[in-house]
Amino acid sequence: MVTITPPAAEQIRSLVPKDQPDKGLRIFIEKGGCSGRQYSMTIDSAKEGDHVIELDGAKVFIDESSSVFLKGASITFEDSLTNIGFRIINPNAKQTCGCGTSFEA
């Protein structure tokens, strides 16, 4: 469904408190942004019905309604001079905004 790159897994592990191993990165889709829908993220626990993706102890949770928009996507983490943060490479996006945080499905 969704893949996580090793740099993303490393960053997720650094964000999750060590005493809360059930937590991970929740990625969800909301209406808004320049292109109609936007990516949102938070540290959270799994909920019933979530898709759970794991890599090297890092967990990503995606609810059922968001999974439709993220099928086949890849999540990575970039730390460069011009960009820092999680990046979602989404094959379902027909159009994206310049900053990459919103898309049209």
Describe the overall structure.
This protein is α+β, with helices and mostly antiparallel strands and 105 residues long. It has one domain (3-104): HesB-like domain (Hypothetical Protein Aq_1857, Chain: A), CATH 2.60.300.12. Helices cover 16% and strands 45% of the residues. The strands form 2 sheets. A 6-stranded mixed beta sheet has the order 4-5-2-3-9-8. The chain has a 3-stranded mixed beta sheet with strand order 1-6-7. The chain is globular. It starts with a strand and ends with a strand. The model has no long low-confidence stretch (mean pLDDT 87).
Secondary-structure map:
Elements: E1 3-4, H1 6-15, E2 23-31, E3 37-45, E4 51-55, E5 58-62, H2 64-70, E6 74-79, E7 84-89, E8 95-96, E9 102-104
Parallel strand pairs: 1-6, 2-5
Antiparallel strand pairs: 2-3, 3-9, 4-5, 6-7, 8-9
CATH architecture: Sandwich
Q: H/E element string?
A: EHEEEEHEEEE
CATH topology: Hypothetical Protein Aq_1857, Chain: A
Number of helices: 2
Strand order of the largest sheet: 4-5-2-3-9-8
Morphology:
globular
Poorly predicted runs: none
Distance between the termini: 17 Å
Relative strand content = 35-45%
Largest sheet: 6 strands, mixed
Mean pLDDT: 87
Core attributes:
16% helix; six-stranded mixed beta sheet; 45% strand; Hypothetical Protein Aq_1857, Chain: A; alpha+beta
Quickly describe the structure.
The chain is of the alpha+beta class and 105 residues long. Helix content is 16%, strand content 45%.
